[in-house]
Every structure is written in structure tokens, then in C-alpha cells.
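Hello again,

I reread your note about wanting to compare the complex against the isolated chains. To keep things tidy I'm splitting this into two emails, and this first one only covers the full assembly. Below are the input lines as submitted, including protein chains and any nucleic acid or small-molecule components. They are followed by the predicted structure of everything together. The single-chain runs will come separately.
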Amino acid sequence: MSTNLSGKYAIVGVGQSPLGKVPDLGPIGLFSVAAKNAIEDAGLKKEDVDGLITRGPDDVYCHHQKVGEALGLNVTFSTSTANGGASQTMAVAMACMAIESGVCNTVVVGYGRDTWSRTHRDAQAKQAVASRPRTYSEFGSEFGQFGAPVNYAISARRHMERFGTTKAQLGAIAVAFRNHARKNPNAFMQKPLTLEEYLSARLIVDPLCLYDCSVFIDGAGAVVVTSAERARDLKQPPAYVRGFGFGNRLSGWYEDDNMINTGAKEAGEIAYKMAGIGPKDVDTAQIYDCFTHMVLLQLEDYGFCAKGEGGPFVGSGALEFDGVLPTNTSGGQLSEGHIEGMLQVLEGARQVRHEYGADRQVKDCNIALVTGHGGNTVCQTALILGREAG
Amino acid sequence: MSDYKKPLPESSVESKPFWEACKRHELVVPRCAKCTHHWFPASATCPKCWSTEWAWAKVSGQGKVYSFGVYHRAYDKSFQEELPYALVIVELAEGPRLTTNVVGCKPAALSCDMPVEVVFEDVTEARTLYKFKPVV
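Full-complex prediction:
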């Protein structure tokens, strides 16, 4: 037996901290500012919050407890999540499930990290990075495997050889999101980016170059989730949670064809079914873009084009504001800044709230798909937000 | 005293027999006694049928390149002089995929599905690494 939760819960407030280089705030401070802004945006008070789901730097034990301490919060339901970049969209879904169960009513969900500052804040931070011993393991580092880009480079190479996907097509993703970032004054990357500049950029792990990689910044984002019933009395138009879904191909990125056909397929099918819609009903997509290639894979898996046709689809200009699927309209992690997908949740809600002027507002935006991806590359979460409850 | 500067594998209780086999220039992977599935790295249960009855089995050493990424930036100083170098996923004829390097082949000459076979490099007195070379 199952209960369809579609339209029963909503994001009623969104908030963010200053983004970019914010050396005077740590990860908990950034989170606190975002949470305060989200609660104020909703027209709610601290006393209304009885749930808190957080994520931050992985080296903070029981992160939610540190955040709650800073905010002076006592709540019923609280935890930190550990599903990588899929955590933030998942946390919104978890909030709905927790409220449905009756254990709480109003949940703050967020992510914050001082990613730029922890390596650049001051001389001490720089020294700590320089002298940090690398952790070595087996079946990787002895062959030169370091850093995140290689997993995506290997997937991109396979996709290119199998389907003929080109560098210029990946570049179309980077250029589209940079164009969007230039309309967003809070986005970190404001410099124009042309396809020519993209194609001549230095390679990181071929086929991925500098502009295929997301931008590490300081920042936090938070949202407030509560019942649709309560939402109707609050300050902002609700962004109804119409659907959510998950797909975790835990057997591994290098198993089967998981690096080509990802768990986003399952996540999307579950979310679309719950929402009673299909990909053609999506007005804007906010796709987890740690790397350009990951956007391309997810667009295929979420059904916006067939498997293998992601290259021509993004190459056609589909992701631009005037394209068929305006995507990552705040600039995404590639250009607004990498806050582990949390800013994409905020942007999805803002788009269905119709809160922007004509230059940034997706026209007649009723449905936003927001996705999360991460956790050793195989975890996927989809969230569908709607202007209407159903 | 070895002058080998690159990281050496930190073996675990599960992988010790694997590295000992490399030392003997043998490539071994877990093989399920019940369903004959081969997998890698080792785990207590066969990931296919969950049988706990399995043994290390010597494999052919034949495989093909599944995919690869070419480093143009050294994340670790010890690989600076290797740039550009490829990190390669090789699919063994028996099925499992291994993270490795392909020697005797410039990154630009690599392609998905190209046939390769195992070679062993005795990098220190204690350690031997498994790598692959193109099948001519």
C-alpha cells in the first residue's frame, strides 16, 4: 500500500548566504544565515521549525547538531545526510515523508560549506593544504587516480566513442549556463564564455577541460518545507512538491553500463509517476552539474531525448532561456557556484513562484525538475516542483 | 632502499592474496564456487548470488579497454613527469573491470574496446603492479 504524497507538501521559503569568497564565515555560519533567510522568506518564526535536515563538510560529525546548536533549535526530527550531491534533493523528499508520518510539521533543509575559504582563507589554510598528506588506497592511486574529474572523463570518453558526442556539445552546456549566470548578480562567474574559449581551455582530465568542472565557492542554501494546507496561509506562493524519486546503482560506476545509463532513469520514472506528468511537461530543469557531461547523461536518463542523443540535444541550444528546456537558469554549479545542488533546489522553487523579472523568468513556468547526483557517482534523486498542487 | 616515488597500494585483509599473486606474476580474481561469477575487488559474498563459497582463480590476463581519462594535471607530484598519462578501465575476458594503466601505448593511441593483455611491473622488492599492454 502506498499513499501518493504529490502536492501535499511544499517549499514555502528559500534562503541563501552570501556566495563566492566569504572568508569571515565558516560552514555552520553560512548555513545559519541561509536558514534564517529561508524562514524569514516564508514569513515563519524560529519557533515554527520542528525539523532540521542538513549537510555540510563531510568532516563535521553530526553536522545537523552543530547547525542546531548555532541556531538554538530544539526539534523533533533531525539528521545529517550522506548521499553526496544527491542528498539535498533527497532531504526535501525526506522532509515530506517525515511530515506525512506525523513526527513534525515544518522542516528546514539545507547545505553549507566554506569550500573556497578552507583552502584559501589565510596563510594557515594554504599551509594546511600544502602539507596535507594525501590518502592513498589500492586499485587507484598507484595508477595515478586522484580527484573527482576522472570518473566523469571516463564516462564522457565512453559516451563519445559510442554515440559520437563531441567536445563542442559539452561546451554548449558550459556556455549556456555561463549566459544564465550573467543574468544572476549573485553568480560567481560573470565573465562571458564563448565556445571558442571553451574549446581552447586547458585540459584537466581529457576529455574534460577547465570549463567542464564546477566552481568551488563558499555558500549555503536552505528551504522550508511544510504542508500544502499551511503553505496557503504563508507569505510566498508555495512551490508544491509534486513528485520525487530515487535511483542508486550502488553496484558501482564501473559496473555494467552504469556510467552511461544512470540511476537517474529510475529516479525520473518514480518521480514522474508520482507527479502524474512526463518529461514533456517540464518547463525548466535544474540539473546537478558537477561536470558538463553529467548534465548530458541526466537529460537522456530523465527522458528529454533518447540515450545517445544528449549531444545533439544540448548542441541545439535547448538549454538556453529561449530553448526548449531552459536549464540551470541561475548559472548552475558550473557558473553560479557549487553548493552541492542546494542552489538548484532554490532556483526551481523561485522559477515556479514566478519571482523574477522577464530577463530571468522562464515563461509560464509551472513545473520544475530538480535533480541531485553524487555519493561516489551512482546516487540520483529527482524532485518535481509545481506552481499548482496538482 | 627503493627510489620508487609513486604511491604503493595499501592492501587490505581482503586484497592480500591478490597482491601476493601479482608478486608471482599471476592475475587472480574471486570466482564463485556456486555460480562461477568472477568479480573484483574481493568481497565476502558473491555479488551475483550471495554465496560465501568462492576462491581466487587465475584468469587469462586478456581484456579490452572499457574507457579511459587522460590526466593533464598532476594531482600528486609523483605523477608530474608522466603527464599526460591515462587512467584506464580494463575489462577482463572473464568480466571484471580493473583500474590500471596501459604501457607501451601513448594516451592518444588508446581507444575504447582495444584489446590488451596483462603485464607485471616489479616496482619495489615487496610490490608488483598489474598493468596492461596492447595486443599486437
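For quick reference: The interface with chain A takes residues 6-12, 15, 19, 41, 47, 66-73, 75-76, 79, 82, 84-85, 87-89, 97-101, 107, 111-113, 129, 131 of chain B (CB under 8 Å).

B.
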